[in-house]
Amino acid sequence: MTRVAVVILNYNGEDFLRRFLPSVLANVSEPDAVWVADNASTDGSVNYILSLGEQVHLHQNKTNLGFAGGYNEAIAAIEAEYILLLNSDVEVSAGFLPPLLAALEADSNLVAVQPKVLAHHNKSLFEYAGAAGGYLDKLGYPYCKGRIFDVVEPDTGQYNTPSQVFWTSGAAMLIRREAYLEVGGLDAHFFAHMEEIDLCWRLQRAGYTLGYVPESTVYHVGGGTLQTGSPKKTFLNFRNSLAMLVKNHPSKAWPLVIFTRMLLDGVAGLKFLTEGKPNLTWAILRAHGAFYGWLPRLIQERKALKKFNAQPHTTVWKPSSILQAFYLQGKKKFSEL
Question: What is the sign, positive or negative, of the torsion defined by CA atoms of 302, 114, 2, 14?
Fold first, then answer.
C-alpha cells in the first residue's frame, strides 16, 4: 500500500495543472504517489495528465461530482495510509510534505493537519482558505488564524507555533484515510464549500484532533473554480453552513441557532441589496429554500451522527461570537481574540 497519495481534484483546470503540478512532482518522492481525480473535464486536462506518463496517476469520475463527491470517489478507490487533499491552484514549497507526515506519525489521535497557507499573488500574506488553521464560533461562522472574514494578515511569524485547530483547509489537508472513511468522508450533498469544516467537525465528534503545522508552507491562488462574489458560491456557502449546523451543533437548542443564523443571513441579504448586488441577495434566498428542502434528511443525519458523541468531544468555541468580536469590538486579528 502506498504510504501517501497526493490527490488533486480537477475540473477544467488544465491551466492550473500546467502551472502547479510540476511543483508537486518536484517535491513528492517515491513511494508517494501523485493522483489527479478528474471530474469529467471537457478541456485538455486529461490529455495533459496522460502526457506526463507514469509520473501521475489518473482517476476519472464519470460526471462532475463537485469537490466533495469527487474526492469521495477517488479516495474510496485509492489505497494509501495517508491522503493529501490538494487543490489544483496550489503551489507547494520544497519539503512541504515531511513535516505534515511527521506530525501525524507522532500522535495517533491527530488525524488531519494543514500547512501554512499563504496567498500566491502576495506570498507575504495569509490566504483566505485556511491561513494558519481554522476555527468556528457557536453560530457556525468560520475564521482562521491570519484571516477573519475578509481581513487577511501579513505573515510575520506570529503563527509559527504548531497548534490544535477546529478545521483544516481543504486546499491542502493531509488526513488518515481510515479516519476519513470512518466518519463518511466529505458530505457529497454539499457539492463544494464548507464541506471540509463539516468533515472536521465529525472527526472531532469521533474523538480525534486536528492540527496546524507551520513548518510546512503552500501558496494558494484561491477562487480557482468559483470567484468571490459569485452567486453560486454565495448559494453554496449559505446553504451548506446551515446544513452543517443542523448535523453537528451540540446544543439541544440548535433550532434557535438556525433561526438566529437565518435572521443574520437576512441582514447580509439586505447589505448586498444596498451594495447593488441583488443577485447575491437572491442567492441567499435560494439557499434558504434549498435548506428547507433538505431539513427532513438533515434531522435524520443528526440522529445518526449521535453515535460519535460517545467519544470525547473536543469542540472548542473561541470566541462564542466572531461577529461581535469583529464588528462591535473591532478585533480584526486572531491574536486579538
Answer: positive
